[in-house]
Specification:
The strands form four sheets. Strands 7-6-8-12-15-16 form a six-stranded mixed sheet, sandwiched between helices. By secondary structure, the chain is α/β, with parallel strands linked by helices. Helix content is 61%, strand content 9%. It is globular and about 100 Å long. Residues 618-863 form the CHAT domain.
């Protein structure tokens, strides 16, 4: 490109069509020694690139040079355009007063079309500063002129900005109309970076409308587009973190925000973006129960926003700072006053976060016993229950529930909690991924706790049972949404399996595998990302739990549901037509004792540890006292179903003395037990027997079972490939899998069973049309689960239950492979005699040798469900 070329001005739109190409051409132009006017354009292009994608200090240097060259060329229009670009950079650098002054000069120097572009960029700055009314006024004046001039690119940018401002003010419908109009314009251009920004904006709109899966999908698509252009994505990082927090993934949001902050600091990027990232990191830390980190991040954000003259943002950061301080247990009249002042300021800005601040003020006032002051703030917060996004409505119902509790109305508390949880039910069922459904329940934990407290105060055990069930194991109420033959997902699963198998083989050979592990983690992120995009199809709510139906189905049996209120275990004993309540020990003591038991079982899996058997049995007696208390003496004869809270899922219930000789099963909830009890078995077919590689026993029970059943589908050695195993498992009446199990606490849906060609993961099971009616997993750790959300569990067992499985036998601890063989043979003998899984497992424990290793192996296995 030569200095006299008529296409020099084309460099400016190229910055957001192909940023790298625009930068290269601008540098080449400067190397050619252009005239001042053209040099001004080149420096402006480099300044824009550095401002948005690189070092802000270099950006300011180039933009000031561009301004001086435009003045030397005596081009008022050129100078006005550069002043607008410089004004944006100055505001992003935290020099707000200088930036606004540059815009004043730009508006004065420009005319007509140029002035409209200056006003658009000033509107953008008003949005950055949180001054939304000024932003709307400037963009309104710009849009008409830009449209009249036929400037498609700048009109589309202005419409996108106006939509973004509308979203900040909660005007979702207006925003949607502007986004739609802007998208139609972008389709007529080759502005690839602007198009990526439009996709990102649509993701933001989907989020504000409560569609989390669509938001994640669109933001991921925008990220892919930005990656092709090689440009950083700090604004997208902020928006993605907001969506992750709404999805219950606050720790991930915190990690992403901190990574983006480090990258921004490395580049010397925009101070305004850093402040916004610090704010989102503070919010994420608060939701992740890390108030110290939240306090530190929010305090820095407040200081930066204040220095940048961004009152709207600073007020939002102060809200997070107060929330974090309150989360550490701080309570004072000053904190109430601060929260109330923040609420008033947010309301003056028209911010949708104002009710959240009023709710905070009301909570702190209640804790201090200031009932009248609390009522005033909570009444304001409760108004949000009538409209807006789901989480805002939930906060409104939480405020209403707190008002009712302060007024002594248990009925009012329960009604508010019911309405709030109904809102969350509807929101949760828009999520297709079981992980998101489980984690989203954390947002209803306060409402569930308030309802249980009110139910307990009203004195009715049945009412407490209903509310204990209301928010327990809700992820099992409907199967996850299956992707419609998504080839990318299937390809990702296949690649993941191959890489994981290669990595494991290399480890066994003693070779380092960092490259394979990095690729495995990348594939895991890709698979998980695609599953999080799935939108739910099932309606919220579903059948309401009815104690009478449970008592009828129990017959002569018993169901023991454990609820936790104020840290103590409440035992709800259901049976013989009654529901009775007993108070037992402290949950913290039970969790600690369960960990001791797990350690003991791990030791007993190895020879020579028999001396620890009495210690494990003594721990079982202590667990019984803590968990069942006086209820154990009221248990009559008959089978027992135990429904523990998520934090107690690792208790080996068969170790408890009163339960050892009983027909015993475990269920995540009474509702899921009822569904399993009422699930019809498929037509009798061949049992499916699977033997994976690497077992110490060689999976010795499988050949014996094959001979015993005669007609069985046996998959072992090279035949036990994941695709073949899944095909045979789909709809089977009975399946037995002997394979190594790996539990992933960091990512429970990647917990796996080792097949011939690699891991069979939970995501694979979720692709089944119907999982086996009965399934036996004779391997370590298959019953281990991750406790997430309010009281949800993620893992292999809970993946199977909503897919048609009525009964599972699985293990919650490492076990001795050889000791498993006689237990499994005895278990199948009972099934052959027509027993249920729980009955057969009870008899199998009594049939194996009486040494410590075999006893510990029997205790480690549990029957889940009702088949």
């Amino acid at each position: 490109m030569t200095p006299g070329s008529d296409t020099v001005l084309d460099l400016l739109p190229l910055v957001f069509a192909d940023p790298g190409e625009a930068l290269a051409r601008a540098r080449a132009l400067l190397d050619a020694g252009p005239a001042p006017l053209h040099a001004s354009v080149a420096h402006q292009v480099i300044g824009i690139w550095q401002r948005d994608f690189g070092d802000l200090r270099l950006a300011l240097r180039h933009l000031r040079r561009a301004r001086d060259l435009a003045a030397r060329a005596e081009s008022a229009e050129r100078e006005a355009d550069v002043l607008a670009t410089l004004g944006v950079a100055l505001v992003h650098a935290g020099r707000t007063r200088q930036g606004l002054a540059a815009f004043e000069r730009g508006v004065a120097r420009g005319t007509g079309h140029t002035r409209a572009r200056v006003r658009y960029r000033r509107a953008y700055v008003w949005w950055v500063l949180g001054r939304h009314r000024e932003a709307l006024e400037d963009v309104r004046r710009a849009v008409g002129v830009l449209r009249q001039a036929g400037d498609v690119i700048w009109t589309a940018r202005a419409l996108t900005l106006r939509a973004t401002v509308h979203l900040a003010l909660g005007a979702v419908e207006r925003a949607d109309a502007d986004f739609t109009a802007a998208e139609a314009l972008w389709d007529t251009t080759d502005q690839e970076h602007d198009k990526a920004d439009a996709v990102e904006s649509r993701g933001l709109a989907a989020f504000r409308q409560g569609d989390v899966p669509a938001a994640l999908r669109l933001l991921d698509e925008a990220e892919e587009r930005y990656a092709k252009l090689g440009t950083p994505t700090f604004m997208l990082d902020i928006r993605r973190c907001e969506v992750l927090m709404a999805a219950g993934l606050a720790p991930e949001a915190l990690a992403e925000a901190d990574t983006a902050i480090a990258e921004l600091d490395r580049l010397g990027g925009q101070s305004t973006r850093k402040a916004e990232l610090l704010l989102v990191a503070a919010r994420a830390a608060r939701l992740a129960d890390d108030p110290d980190t939240a306090t530190a991040r929010a305090a820095v954000a407040v200081r930066l926003f204040a220095a940048q003259r961004r009152a709207w943002w600073a007020t939002h950061a102060r809200l997070v700072l107060i929330e974090a301080r309150a989360a550490t247990g701080r309570r004072s009249g000053r904190l109430v006053a601060d929260a109330a002042a923040v609420a008033e300021r947010l309301a003056s800005f028209g911010s949708p976060a104002a009710p959240q601040a009023s709710l905070l003020a009301g909570r702190i006032a209640l804790a201090l016993g200031r009932s009248e002051e609390a009522e005033r703030h909570l009444a304001v917060a409760a108004r949000s229950r009538r409209g807006g996004p789901p989480l805002a409505r939930m906060n409104g119902w939480a405020a209403q529930a707190l008002r009712a509790r302060a007024a002594g109305s248990d009925r009012g508390v329960l009604e508010a909690c019911r309405r709030g949880l109904d809102v969350l039910d509807d929101h949760r069922m828009t999520l297709g991924a079981s992980e998101l459904r489980a984690r989203a329940t954390a947002q209803g934990a306060e409402l569930a706790a308030l309802a249980q407290e009110a139910a307990l105060a009203s004195g009715g055990p049945r009412r407490l049972l209903v509310w204990s069930e209301r928010w327990r194991a809700t992820v099992l109420t409907a199967p996850p949404t299956r992707p419609p033959a998504d080839p990318a997902l299937l390809s990702g699963l296949t690649a993941f399996r191959e890489i994981a198998a290669r990595a494991e083989e290399a480890r066994q050979d003693g070779h380092p595998v960092p490259a394979l592990e990095r690729e495995q983690r990348r594939l895991e992120r890709e698979i998980r990302s695609r599953t999080l995009h799935l939108r739910g199809e099932a309606p919220g709510g579903g059948d309401r739990f009815r104690p009478a139906r449970l008592l009828e189905r129990l017959g002569e049996g018993w169901l023991v549901e454990l609820a936790v209120l104020d840290g103590r275990v409440q035992v709800l004993l259901c049976g013989q037509g009654r529901v009775r309540r007993f108070e037992a020990g402290r949950l913290a003591d039970a969790v600690a004792e369960a960990e001791h038991v797990q350690a003991g079982l791990r030791r007993l899996a190895h020879p020579g540890a028999a001396a620890r058997l009495p210690l494990v049995e003594a721990a079982g007696r202590r667990l019984e006292e803590i968990l069942l208390g006086p209820a154990v003496r009221q248990l009559g004869p008959g089978p027992v179903v135990v429904v523990p809270p998520g934090s107690l899922h690792r208790v080996p219930w068969a170790l408890l003395p009163s339960l050892r000789e009983r027909v015993l099963s475990v269920s995540p909830s009474a509702s899921s037990w009822l569904r399993a009890r009422e699930t019809a078995p498929p037509p009798v077919g061949r049992p499916v027997l699977v033997r994976g590689p690497g077992l110490a026993s060689g999976g010795a029970e499988v050949p014996e079972l094959a001979a015993r059943y005669g007609r069985a589908t046996v998959l072992e050695e090279g035949d036990a490939h994941v695709s073949r195993v899944l095909r045979e498992l789909d709809g089977a009446a009975l399946a037995h899998i002997a394979a190594h199990g790996t539990f992933r606490a960091d990512s429970p849906l990647f917990s796996s069973l080792t097949m011939a060609d690699g891991p069979l993961i939970v995501h694979d099971f979720e692709r089944l049309d119907r999982s086996p009616y009965r399934i036996i997993l004779s391997c370590c750790d298959t019953a281990r689960l991750a406790s997430v959300g309010a009281d949800e569990l993620l893992g292999l067992v809970t993946a199977l239950l909503p897919l048609g499985t009525a009964g599972v036998v699985a293990c919650s601890a490492p076990v001795n492979d050889e000791a498993v063989v006689p237990l499994m043979l005895a278990l199948h003998k009972g099934l052959g005699a027509g027993l249920s899984l729980a009955e057969a497992l009870r008899d199998a424990r009594g049939a194996v040798p009486g040494d410590a290793t075999h006893q510990a192996t029997g205790w480690a296995f549990s029957a889940f469900g009702a088949a």
